[in-house]
Amino acid sequence: MDGSSSTSPGIPERVIATDAARGLIAEIRQDHPDIIFHQSGGCCDGSSPMCYPADEFRIGEGDVKLGDIDGVPVYISGSQFEAWKHTQLILDVVPGRGGMFSLDNGRERRFLSRGRVFTAQELAALG
To answer: Helix (H, G, I), strand (E, B), or coil: what is residue 113?
Structure first.
């Protein structure tokens, strides 16, 4: 797993990705070079991380940028961030269909969010 974000030493990444997720991101970028992720809030596509062409998704004023994976920004809604701020988001891939509007749809693999609760020391470093 690799965060591929730029944070200060000792400060944990808020989002990282498995090698499988990084591979699927690279595959999608062959067709759509400029993409973003938005952690879905649970409506139509459950709580899947959704992958969109960057110019087709509008980031909201309340959205929070968690970090970048291989240069791809990852966002979450402010309300979800408040619920998950104690958790590191781990982008992974599993077999199946992606979200209806997500770029992983039709590739027979889909992105999945996993989580790891930060330690007390990590939370203190995050501030």
So the answer is: strand
So what's the pLDDT on residue 115? 93
User: Which of the four pLDDT bands, split at 50, 70 and 90, describes residue 101?
Assistant: confident
> Three-state SS for 38?
strand
Cα 85 → chain centroid: 14
DSSP 54-102: GGG-PPPTT-EEEEEETTEEEEE-HHHHHHHTTEEEEEEEEES---TTS
Q: Biggest alpha carbon distance in the chain?
A: 41
CA 92 to chain CA centroid, Å, is: 9
What is the side-by-side strand order in the sheet with 109-117? Answer: 15-17, 87-95, 109-117
At residue 117, the pLDDT reads 97
Residue 9 to residue 118: CA distance in whole angstroms = 16
